[in-house]
Amino acid sequence: MSNINNQTLDLNSIELVQDLDHEAAATVSGGAALELYKDSNFQNPIFFTDSGYSYIGDASNDQVSSIRVNEGTWAFYADANGQGTRSTLGPGEYPYTGSLDVGNDTISSFYRLS
After folding, report:
1. What pLDDT does 74 receive?
2. Domain ranges of the chain
3. To 5 degrees, how large is the angle CA 23–CA 24–CA 30?
4. d(CA 5, CA 49)
5. Thinking of the domain 36-114, which architecture would CATH place it in?
6. What is the CA radius of gyration of the chain?
7. Residue from 49, 56, 42 nearest 84 by CA
8. What is the mean pLDDT of the chain?
9. Is the separation of the CB atoms in 54 and 38 below 8 Å?
10. Each residue's pLDDT tens digit, 2-24
11. What is the DSSP string of the chain?
12. pLDDT higher than threshold 80 for residue 50
């Protein structure tokens, strides 16, 4: 609580102040190790993480068109559970996944290698 001009203000009552989980905070600050986007050129973000392995999920499965790797080396797979065609990417920006072995709009799972 703060006291400004003799008025008490509870910061939690302000709509813009929210508790963020670790992944949301990393996303807001631009600190996520991996960023996946539905469209090319980093448009329409769908997944941000620092975690090791994940299934993209039904809502985003086979929809990744661009990737930003901020840290680590990652393997991306066309199928769930690390199966199917694989592309390995290190730090960098990949504005269109169609140029990767795994292809455009095909990624279903990924794993952090380092």
Report:
1. 96
2. 36-114
3. 85
4. 42
5. Sandwich (2.60)
6. 18
7. 56
8. 79
9. no
10. 455 555 545 444 443 334 344 44
11. -EEETTEEE-GGGSTT-----HHHHHHHHT--SEEEEEETTTEEEEEEE--SEEE--TTTTT---EEEE-SS-EEEEEEGGGEEEEEEE-SEEES-GGGSTT-TT---EEEE--
12. yes
- What's the rounded Cα separation, in Å, for the pair 96 and 103? 9
111 pLDDT more than 50? yes
- Residue reference for tokens 């290698």: 113
Amino acid code (one letter) for 91: P
Tell me how far the alpha carbon of residue 70 is from its chain's centroid: 10
Q: How far, in Å, are 6, 58, 62, 80 from residue 91 at the CA level?
A: 51, 26, 22, 23
Write the single-letter amino acid at 40: S
Residue type, 98: G
